[in-house]
Recover the amino acids of this structure.
């Protein structure tokens, strides 16, 4: 049985209890004030947007939203925690009892969401000094939601699917940008095994230090094998927290149950209870965007996309938005989707960039596709042009101009080149005349080589046939 | 006549008429501080340069006609209230050199009006105590008898006002820390309704109980200061949005028909005979003024003290966890690892009473004990609130003694925490219920002041001030502490002293 705890940073402009910016980066300790540094006498004031965003996420994840909830203090000492307590939610979380639907082997499975609560993030220890550690409090007080799943997943693959779906929904609702590399999405998991047919719960092991969804999957695969082996050898599983060691590909002990903290939760006396009225909830519900599965169905119906294309394009809201904007300018949905799933995705994977970090706009892609249609460039040259656009953000016509990539569609110019190719390849001409169709392909290739790929393919074929039949 | 002996409203008249300047007033107080501080030890920081600069600014303000009720009036601030650029130590070794980068909201409000901050007053470390003996720096003495405590935890503020070291002072009250020292020092001290005054900048002891309030020389001044310091603060979620009344409009002598509740629980075991008699005489004074005296009962009040010590300590254990040596304050010089650094830093930085309460609070919140202690204490809290609500169906205000005893000897209870905790037996229930309460001097017992506590409904400070003012007018408390400044200050016997040293004129009140 697998359960997941996901922490997602919310995309609010300011921190949860003060007006400091939540922007990532920045010199250490520049996005701080007396409140988020927890200076003596300061008090937190809850950012209303945080509640709104958490409710959005809760509604999108089919949760019940509490009309009345409260904040609590979670007490523990650590240098990155300025007040030595984290303001979180304990027994009355904002959202509860939701679910996410995932698809495994073509079957839909519901994964329960136990609760979603809001809390503040801690700072970050920087271990760059030999004399000791330094602390950066820029992140202290950045709002988080913690999404706790039910232990409904039975395989690492299901856990992977759940995370992918969850990320997509959080991005869709625009409550979090879910960038794992910037720490705005963090995953902990717990896993227990039990013999087939047994109803007794196994001992729960918590896994930490999981830096990607793939790492979650790999760590779970390793951990399940490890636990099964221990049990098969007649051993017992000890309740503990283990750390995933990415380079070794194993999990290692981190702390045992005895070392676990007693957080001494109690209601935060500096804050008043959170009241979410039905009116507010409805207002938020109405502002929710179309969810991925709805969008997928619409893309199939409205744009005639194959199901496979629709699924991939709608897996990210940004990708889907890009697609729709591009189709507005260039009315061939399948061509746009081919480009998005092909060259676009290939380059994004290679560079590790998100779609909104790429300088190519939907308008630019539409222009590029029109250049192909109008015969200005060929499909294969377009790939070269796109790569340049992707790297520099230049308009396609500028790239074509600068690099001299315009297709040769002038009949006389092309005929001269073709005549030269025929003169230089008498053997192939001979073969062609003897009925070897393959020779035609070779001659076209020679024309392309001579023009660096810029020859208009249709025209080349046509002229070549004319010249050869002379 | 010495300027330092005047009240705010008396000084205001002189300043407004330009008969004196803010600079003259300030210098008078600074002189007075130099004269009496060696005996009283009420202050941990004296901000002479800042005060003189502010005095000049206040005079400018007055010259331009931009002055308000507190322009040019000197104040002393309890040293657990954050003052930008001025050390805020909480009388703890932990914060001995801590200089805040920001002002508490109350300080900001006072500075906007042009008050003169003369210094920061001593307290029981982190406001935990009832005698000011728990300060890491000095023990403040009661101006009425230097061998006695001034009460606590705002003992420095109370003693400073009793000794005329400022026109008024700010304190904080978590379980009686304004009212009890006011009572022991013979001055007026008010704890407003929880949520009336912003707590932003008050170094937290017990967040659900703490409240800032004024120490003044009379009831009129209390109303004047209250007018300035109250009001909703967007920086404090627990401060309430209410219409700001003019508290001076409640300063009326008429209390005819007002129903005054007297709870038998406030005259129980442990009350000194002299205190009991003086308070009972005061009740007669109010009766003679036309108030209706009603016997009431607050049965759960006997559980107030244990509930208070659990709730306050639990919150304190969390509030004081931030003093870990990492960002500011005391840090251990030698340590082996992180945990050791925490332990050495906190062992060295905190005093005995603070450690005792942190341990008590940590224990009360621990898993397995939470239900038995903290949760039960919260239930008691609800019961006490209900008790008061029921009592207030029958009466408008409740009166009784502020403290069961007059000022006790320094060292007398220092090693007996339970005896020390009893000093707050009449005041803690008011914090637990979040109600407003005032302590005003009502007479002397064995030459030491006795305080009368008046408790009101939530946000009915006005009614409290009405009763307090009526009582004060009928029963002038003109006694002055004799333990200081007598031999070198003969002027005390001349006309500026509002009367000879006496308790109150009983015959006069019977007329
Ligand atoms: Zn901040």
């Amino acid at each position: 049985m697998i359960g997941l705890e996901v922490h997602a940073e919310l995309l609010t402009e300011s921190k949860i209890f003060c007006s400091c910016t939540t922007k990532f980066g920045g010199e250490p300790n520049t996005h701080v004030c007396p409140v988020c540094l927890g200076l003596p006498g300061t008090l937190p004031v809850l950012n209303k947007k945080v509640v709104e965003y958490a409710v959005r996420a809760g509604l999108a994840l089919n949760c019940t939203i509490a009309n009345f909830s409260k904040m609590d203090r979670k007490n523990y000492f650590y240098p990155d925690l300025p007040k030595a307590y984290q303001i979180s939610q304990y027994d009355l979380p904002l959202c509860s009892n939701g679910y996410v639907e995932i698809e495994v082997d073509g079957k839909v499975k519901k994964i329960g969401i136990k609760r979603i609560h809001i809390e503040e993030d801690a700072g970050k220890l920087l271990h760059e000094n030999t004399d000791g550690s330094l602390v950066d409090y820029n992140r202290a007080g950045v709002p988080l939601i913690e999404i706790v799943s039910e232990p409904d997943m039975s395989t690492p693959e299901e856990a992977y699917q759940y995370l992918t779906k969850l990320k997509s929904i959080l991005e869709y609702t625009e409550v979090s940008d879910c960038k794992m590399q910037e720490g705005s999405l963090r995953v902990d998991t717990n896993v227990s095994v039990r013999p087939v047919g047994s109803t007794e719960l196994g001992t729960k092991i918590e896994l930490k230090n999981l830096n990607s969804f793939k790492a979650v999957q790999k760590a779970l695969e390793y951990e399940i094998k490890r636990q099964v082996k221990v049990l098969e050898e007649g051993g017992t599983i000890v309740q503990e927290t283990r750390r995933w060691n990415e380079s070794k590909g194993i999990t290692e002990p981190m702390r045992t149950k005895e070392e676990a903290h007693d957080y001494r939760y109690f209601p935060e006396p500096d804050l008043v209870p959170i009241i979410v009225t039905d009116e507010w909830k409805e207002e938020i519900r109405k502002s929710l965007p179309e969810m991925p599965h709805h969008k997928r169905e619409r893309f199939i119906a409205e744009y005639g996309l194959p199901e496979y294309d629709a699924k991939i394009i709608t897996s990210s809201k940004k990708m889907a938005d890009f697609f729709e904007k591009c189709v507005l300018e260039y009315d061939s949905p399948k061509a746009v989707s081919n480009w998005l799933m092909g060259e676009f995705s290939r380059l994004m994977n290679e560079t590790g960039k998100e779609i909104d970090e790429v300088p190519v706009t939907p308008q630019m892609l539409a222009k590029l596709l029109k250049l192909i249609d109008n015969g200005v460039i060929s499909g294969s040259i377009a790939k070269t042009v796109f790569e340049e656009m992707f790297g520099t953000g230049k308009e396609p016509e500028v790239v074509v101009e600068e690099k001299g990539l315009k297709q040769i569609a002038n009949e006389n110019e092309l005929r001269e080149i073709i005549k030269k190719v025929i003169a230089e390849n008498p053997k192939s001409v001979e073969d062609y005349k003897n009925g070897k169709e393959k020779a035609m392909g070779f001659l076209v290739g020679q024309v392309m080589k001579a023009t660096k790929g810029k020859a208009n393919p249709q025209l080349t074929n046509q002229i070549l046939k004319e010249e050869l039949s002379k | 006549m010495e300027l330092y002996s005047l009240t705010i409203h008396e000084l205001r008249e002189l300043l407004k008429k330009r008969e004196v300047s803010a600079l003259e007033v300030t210098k008078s107080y600074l002189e007075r501080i130099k004269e009496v501080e060696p005996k009283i030890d009420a202050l941990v920081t004296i901000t002479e340069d800042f005060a003189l600069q502010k005095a000049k600014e206040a005079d400018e303000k007055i010259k331009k006609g931009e002055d308000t009720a507190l322009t040019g009036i000197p104040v002393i601030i309890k040293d657990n209230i954050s003052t930008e650029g001025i050390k805020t130590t909480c009388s703890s070794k932990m914060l001995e050199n801590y200089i805040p980068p920001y002002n508490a909201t109350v300080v900001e409000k006072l500075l906007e009006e042009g008050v003169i901050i003369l210094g920061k007053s001593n307290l029981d470390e982190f406001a935990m105590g009832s005698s000011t003996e728990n300060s890491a720096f000095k023990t403040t003495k009661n101006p009425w008898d230097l061998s006695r405590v001034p009460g606590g935890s705002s003992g420095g503020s109370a003693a400073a006002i009793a000794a005329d070291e400022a026109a008024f002072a700010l304190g904080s009250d978590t379980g009686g820390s304004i009212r009890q020292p006011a009572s022991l020092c013979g001055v007026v001290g008010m704890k407003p309704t929880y949520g009336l005054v912003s707590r932003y900048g008050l170094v937290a002891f017990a967040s659900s109980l703490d409240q800032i309030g004024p120490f003044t020389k009379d009831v009129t001044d209390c109303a004047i200061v209250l007018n300035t310091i109250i009001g909703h603060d967007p920086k404090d979620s627990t401060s309430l949005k209410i219409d700001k009344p003019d508290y001076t409009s409640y300063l009326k002598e008429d209390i005819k028909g007002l129903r005054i509740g007297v709870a038998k629980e406030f005259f129980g075991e442990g009350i000194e005979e002299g205190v009991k008699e003086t308070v009972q005489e005061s009740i007669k004074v109010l009766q003679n003024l036309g108030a209706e005296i009603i016997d009431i009962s607050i049965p759960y009040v006997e559980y107030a003290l244990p509930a208070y010590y659990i709730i306050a300590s639990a919150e304190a254990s969390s509030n004081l966890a931030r003093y870990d040596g990492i960002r500011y304050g005391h840090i251990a010089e030698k340590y082996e690892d992180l945990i050791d650094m925490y332990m050495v830093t906190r062992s060295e930085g905190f005093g005995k009473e603070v450690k005792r309460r942190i341990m008590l609070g940590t224990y009360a919140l621990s898993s397995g004990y939470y239900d038995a202690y903290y949760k039960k204490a919260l239930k008691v809290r609800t019961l006490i609130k209900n008790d008061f609500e029921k009592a207030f169906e029958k009466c408008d205000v409740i009166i009784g003694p502020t403290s069961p005893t007059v000022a006790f000897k320094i060292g007398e209870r220092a090693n007996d925490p339970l005896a020390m905790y009893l000093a707050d037996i009449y005041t803690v229930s008011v914090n637990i219920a979040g109600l407003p309460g005032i302590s005003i001097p009502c007479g002397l017992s064995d030459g030491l002041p006795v305080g009368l506590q008046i408790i009101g409904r939530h946000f009915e400070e006005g009614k409290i001030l009405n009763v307090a003012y009526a009582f004060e007018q009928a029963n002038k408390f003109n006694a002055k502490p004799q333990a200081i400044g007598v031999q070198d200050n003969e002027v005390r016997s001349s006309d500026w002293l509002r009367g000879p040293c006496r308790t109150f004129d009983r015959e006069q009140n019977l007329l």
Remarks:
- Chain B has one domain: 3-265+276-296+390-487.
- Chain B is about 35% helix and 10% strand.
- Chain B has a mean pLDDT of 93.
- The radius of gyration of chain B is 22 Å.
